[in-house]
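WARN no homologs supplied; continuing
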Amino acid sequence: MIRRAPQVRRDELLRATCDVIARQGLARTRVADVAARVGVSPALVLYHFATKESLLAQAFAWAAEEDLTLLREVDARPGSATQRLRAMLDVYAPAATSPGWRLWIEAWAAALHDPEIRKASRRLDARWAKAFTQVIAEGVASGEFRCAHPEESAWRIAVLLDGLAVQVVVHKGLVTARQMYRWSREAASVEVGIEPEALLG
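OK structure emitted
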């Protein structure tokens, strides 16, 4: 076994936990599964996290911070408000090979009963809504967008994306990724008062 710095090892275990949850679901995730994925003993996992419940809660919090880092990178890109909104919509949508959305669907279900997971999920949702609000408000200020209530529009865009993503990921075939792409951009364009083509391009 390779010895690693404690924080490096913790990050490795948290990433592995997220991968296992996304692959086989929260209810079927065991400490032994995480240990096997990393190539360490279950005792080492519990040395870092004490209990399975702590491991799972911290994994969701870690995943939220990873996603928020990606959001900050997108939010910092140069360009018009329209270009930045389009980039945010691209990042938010579920990728065919990414476990991210499967993880967050598991997190939403767990958040009904686990306050730590609920806290991580709430922080991520609120930050995405804030980012959408900011870019919409900047577009209004620059004259690109026509929107009376940027925050309300931001939340409508975010919850529509959430709902469509659940259909794409969970109910495969009912709504396709292509339909999600088109519908979300058409709805966002209505919210900010621009032609759909500006976000579909």
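Residues 164 and 179 are 9 Å apart (CA to CA).
OK
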